[in-house]
Write a structure and sequence with these properties.
2 copies of one chain form a homodimer. Chain A is mainly beta. Chain A is 6% helix and 38% strand. Chain A is globular. Chains A and B meet through strand 1, strand 17 and strand 24 of A and strand 1, strand 17 and strand 24 of B.
Chain lengths: 355, 355
């Protein structure tokens, strides 16, 4: 007979849609700083692309002095850089917006962190040079399909302004957690734009093109744009760097607890700069106390925080959390509502009952 | 190189809590009538029990003429019965209650269906006889632990009134989908009470005891009781048969769609009787049209229904669904709020946007 002494209990990805595949990381149930590739959230606009990776080549052309086609071997042989990076979908926490918005209803798990290794984009561009009129760099992925708002076929393409693209931490990555990037996360090459929401980190890069104007692809100027108004496009602006944000991992929302002493814990992150402070309220936001940060705050990474809570009095508690970053950004009490539901970063908030 | 032509895309269980393990079935992404054991929702009050299944014996004692201890071989050798049964957690859809209640925040997936095989409880009781004063039968599971509302240790135990217990479809089951019951679902023996919410279907049966009074265990008289009032226990009554209920599997809530023709589809079930009618509204409940039932309605099983929707006009649509059963029960427009959040069965409701 089987040994049932320790039946395996483990979390799984949380399915939001299957075709295309959109599945969240079970963020409340992670006990590692580094998300295993299997539990890394999957966010797709289209079905998975088909290409023959053994013939894979990366062309860089457009407004460059010397257009070049890189083989994977060439890329692997260039000086590399390894960075721990949070990737967070711009639609993370979308389901929390009130009024609710349309689109994939992500909870708090469209976020993962791990170790990306690759070559700086700027190193590759040193091999091609840039013509003076160059303004943006366009990254086209192999994934393509029809969009619900049109009958045209598009590849997933995004651009970066030249200045951003030349930052040394912008990687053409080929490893995740010391392994080739898992296919679903962009094998063989994925752009990694640390600090920006993850729509910028184009998977399965097909080609890189330097242009002298603003790129107008639909994933640049239709999606991944904040539209503050429900009925018109007034006041719109692009989604770029990730907002300062935090998530309470334990306890869970609506959990029933004994009286006792608990370690409330979770993560906090920001796009630009570092987390400097995490504060908690046990009375719905009236009074705040500092949480302990468990590790020195690093650029591009989330920090773990915790707070020892003596839950000695029975009753219902609304627990709120707010993080502050080194640029002075603080999570707001209310989210910035926008029609497509990007960048939710209001105080994280849960309710528990002590009985 | 690997063949990435068809990367596997599949749904997983949806984690609500890990210790104890509570994970939902990805109900929107099932394409079979029978839920594979791996995707069957897991609902536990405690950690998994430890017992040596090779020495497993089932005692039946208390108010019986001849107390007996059954071996598994004896049970397997008795006449068997095989029934397709829906099991649904009484807390299914709990997260939809407004105001929100405490406890595991199940969405719409704490429900699964499959083929259970076992011996009728009544057949076993013919071997022991029942003393005239017998009133209830108590089923104790091997799982035990502390409850959040006390410092005492309890096994998970539930009772059935004699009359219910003697219905021929009440099974001591040993197979699920033609295989031994998966350990997490009650191996080697699980009580199956078709039509009742699944707290009645005790897993890992340790013993069966016949008593002459009402059983007062906490999973009988504290949990699995409807408390209509937030602050007091007035008007309380036990959770028994499952309510008539339905779920729209496709499209998904808040999905964005092209104009076009869609097959809206889902399931409907009821505890006692059969589903006789499923109706859909595409205008938020003002007008209703009948759905097609894809299979003859059977006792204890869910039915699949579908509706061909010509979504030719752009805009937002609130889609509502209500099922009716052969007892005349109809899903209500508003849920019956109760403090512990059982039996949610208001109209299923989603919003989609056609663009």
């Amino acid at each position: 007979m089987k040994n049932f002494d320790h039946p395996q209990v483990k979390p799984y990805l949380i399915t939001r849609t299957l075709f295309p595949e959109n599945q969240e990381t079970p963020i409340h149930f992670l006990n590692s700083d580094i998300v295993d590739g299997k539990l890394f959230y999957r966010r797709n606009h289209f079905s998975y692309p088909h290409f023959t990776s053994s013939f894979y080549l990366l062309p860089i052309d457009g407004l460059v002095h010397t257009p070049k086609i890189f083989s994977l071997q060439e890329i692997y042989s260039l000086p590399s850089k390894t960075i721990k990076v949070v990737l967070e979908c711009a639609g993370d926490k979308r389901e929390l917006f009130q009024p609710k918005v349309f689109g994939e209803q992500f909870g708090k798990g469209a976020i993962s962190q791990g170790i990306w290794k690759g070559v700086s984009l700027r190193t590759l561009l040193q091999h091609t040079g840039l013509i003076d009129t160059a303004k943006e760099i366009v990254f086209e992925g192999y994934d393509y399909g029809e969009r619900p708002d049109s009958n045209q076929i598009f590849n997933f393409s995004r651009s970066l302004p030249i200045k951003k693209a030349l930052e040394p931490d912008i990687l053409i990555a080929y490893e995740y957690n010391n392994q080739p990037i898992p296919f679903k996360h962009g094998f063989p090459l994925r752009l990694i734009v640390p600090g920006w929401y993850a729509m910028a980190s184009v998977k399965w890069i097909k080609k890189i093109t330097v242009i002298d104007k603003e790129f107008k692809g639909p994933f640049q100027v239709v999606d991944y744009v904040y539209y503050p108004n429900k009925e018109n496009d007034g006041g719109k602006f692009s989604v770029t760097a990730a907002n300062v944000n935090s998530t309470i991992q334990y306890p869970l929302d609506r959990q029933l607890l004994h009286t006792g002493i608990y370690e409330i814990k979770g993560i906090a992150r920001t796009g630009e700069g570092m987390i400097t402070k995490v504060e908690i309220s046990l009375d719905g936001g009236q009074t705040w106390e500092p949480c302990q940060l468990n590790s020195p705050s690093e650029k591009y990474s989330w920090v773990h925080w915790n707070y020892k809570w003596e839950a000695l009095k029975k009753g219902e508690y609304t627990i709120k959390l707010k993080a502050t970053d080194s640029q002075g950004n603080v999570q707001p009490s209310e989210p910035f509502w926008n029609r497509k539901g990007y960048g939710y970063n209001a105080f994280d908030s849960i309710k528990v009952k002590v009985e």
